[in-house]
Design brief:
By secondary structure, the protein is mainly α. The chain has 14 helices and two strands; from the N terminus they run αααααββααααααααα. The chain folds into two domains: about 110 residues, Winged helix-like DNA-binding domain superfamily/Winged helix DNA-binding domain (Arc Repressor Mutant, subunit A); about 140 residues, Four Helix Bundle (Hemerythrin (Met), subunit A) (Up-down Bundle). Strands 1-2 form a two-stranded antiparallel sheet. The chain is elongated and about 65 Å long.
Length: about 270
């Protein structure tokens, strides 16, 4: 059952406490954004579910009672529960109540950002490995297909991204992270498969958290410069329509990033 001690936090106060525990990766000049009550309520409930405080299959208290415990209005709580229902974290059953779901069975891609937030913006090792495994499964195939299906216009886009990467080498890790995502998204688009770019976009937040950690750690070193070289080799394979070479280069590049993220440098 729910613990009153856990639930009776003032939500906004709790949110600031939670944020103070997170590693700050943004510039100090970035404007402070205060969450809405609904956002704070959503994150609080996500933490309770993902931590196991709220058990799978558990029925939540009636909205009026639950809202009072959380210190929010019923409309705010209801909106938060609707959001959680859309993510697959809870199940709203008319006239029966709200039940905690097993997100592994009922969750959608929308839950990825919640999993990242639950770990204070840092990638849990098991979660990071799952993402890396997904990238190997998905992106080697998109590279192979991109070599076969790319258009002339897309080759021009790849060349433009390579030029931007060269300029960004003297800028900042965030710019490189954004360009890297754009490059991989363009590969998915060039594959000709309508679903692949949607999948890449759906986990953009966790994707850029993973690659951002890499670029921040190795910014200004030959390790990051090697990524640009991999990209240039990929574009060359795309231009030649060499699908085997594209798949091989993508495999090599993903392994390169994985090894350095894990501290297993060759």
């Amino acid at each position: 059952m729910l613990s009153r001690r856990i639930l009776q936090y003032n939500l906004i106060g709790w949110w600031f406490y939670h944020r103070r525990r997170q590693r700050v990766n943004h510039a100090l000049t970035e404007p402070l954004r205060v969450p809405s009550l609904k956002e704070a309520c959503v994150q609080r409930l996500e933490d309770l579910i993902l931590s196991g405080e709220l058990k799978i299959g558990e029925r939540l208290p009636p909205e009026r009672e639950f809202a009072a415990r959380l210190g929010v209005s019923r409309p705010v709580l209801h909106e938060a529960l609707v959001d959680l229902d859309a993510k697959g974290l809870v199940r709203i059953v008319p006239r029966r109540g709200v039940f905690v779901n097993d997100y592994r069975r009922a969750g959608s891609m929308a839950i990825l950002s919640s999993l990242l937030a639950y770990h204070n913006g840092q990638l849990d090792p098991a979660f990071a490995q799952s993402l890396l495994d997904t990238r190997f499964l998905l992106e080697i195939e998109t590279a192979r297909l991109a070599a076969l299906n790319r258009t002339g216009e897309q080759l021009d886009e790849f060349s433009d991204l390579l030029a931007q990467e060269e300029e960004a080498a003297c800028c900042d890790p965030q710019t490189l992270t954004d360009l890297d995502f754009s490059f991989h998204l363009l590969i998915a688009i060039a594959s000709g498969n309508l679903i692949y770019p949607l999948l890449i976009n759906s986990f953009k937040g966790v994707y850029t958290s993973l690659t951002g950690a890499f670029f921040r750690k190795y910014y200004g070193t030959p390790v990051v410069a090697a990524v640009h070289q991999f990209h240039a080799r990929l574009v060359d394979a795309f231009e030649r329509r060499d699908s085997d070479a594209a798949a091989s280069i993508m495999t090599e590049m993903l392994r390169h990033g994985e090894n350095y993220l894990k501290g297993e440098q060759p």
